[in-house]
Design goal:
InterPro entries: Papain-like_cys_pep_sf, Transglutaminase-like. By secondary structure, the chain is α+β, with helices and mostly antiparallel strands. The protein contains nine helices and ten strands. Helix 1 crosses helix 4 and helix 3 packs across helix 4.
Length: 233
């Protein structure tokens, strides 16, 4: 199947789906194509709005960390008629060392709120976050892990995969071994998560995105994003 790199600058989620659906021969192929679009087209990184973004914003910026990436895929699957939702878990912050600037890493709590995408399959809900990094980036990060002799870090872990088969769980970050037990909560969207004040991604008790509110205007937002993403390559 031809993936997102061949698309002519789609403007909306519906545009993306129309292109993908024209090349998919089954529902399973369409789900995988949507997964691969987010993986290959949305660069992993942080914006000055953090979690306070819509799926359309993430599509337009082509940039987002795990939560906006998951929400975009959720919106795409929902638009295509699949039942999808977000499952937030407490992710061991050790996975994130080297994935963002060290000062930012030091301010993070021991576990950070991380969204998994859940889509209903024939046997029940399937969870995944294998869309976070494209294959070449994940290979580089895993090579850095091996060189450092670490089981996790640089945003990933040993054994992480960027491939989803449409039927089974698949992880780039939130494999069960790196998730705080009994920490999950389900939301219909990232907007609902933000509105209800979910998560532990906070500084001095205030959600990160609220700290960034005064810095959203150009050029301050670009400066903030440069600091946040200094180590994400």
């Amino acid at each position: 199947m031809t993936h997102s790199r061949d698309m002519h600058d789609p403007k909306t989620i519906r545009d993306v789906l129309a292109h993908l659906a024209a090349q998919a021969d089954s529902d399973r192929e369409l789900m995988i194509a949507a997964h691969d679009f987010v993986r290959d087209s949305i660069r992993f990184g942080f914006t000055a709005r953090f979690d306070d973004v819509t799926p359309q914003m993430t599509l337009e910026r082509r940039l987002g960390h795990c939560n906006p990436q998951a929400d975009l895929l959720r919106a795409m699957l929902a638009e295509a008629g699949f039942e999808a939702r977000l499952k937030f878990v407490g992710l061991d912050k050790r996975l994130l060392r080297g994935a963002t600037a060290e000062p930012v890493y030091r301010l993070l709590p021991a576990h950070v709120s991380h969204a998994l995408l859940e889509v209903r399959g024939e046997g029940g809900w399937i969870e995944l976050d294998s869309y976070i990094f494209p294959p070449d980036m994940l290979r580089r990060r895993r090579a850095r892990l091996a060189q450092a002799g670490l089981p996790c870090g640089f945003g990933t872990f040993e054994g992480a995969s960027p491939v989803w088969d449409g039927d089974s769980p698949a992880y780039s970050q939130a494999a069960p071994a790196y998730v705080l037990p009994d920490s999950c909560a389900v939301y219909r969207s990232l907007a609902e998560f933000v509105r209800e004040g979910g998560g532990d991604n906070r500084l001095l008790g205030v959600p990160f995105w609220r700290w960034m509110w005064p810095l959203r205007m150009w050029p301050a937002s670009r400066l903030v994003e440069g600091v946040l993403n200094a180590s994400r390559a």
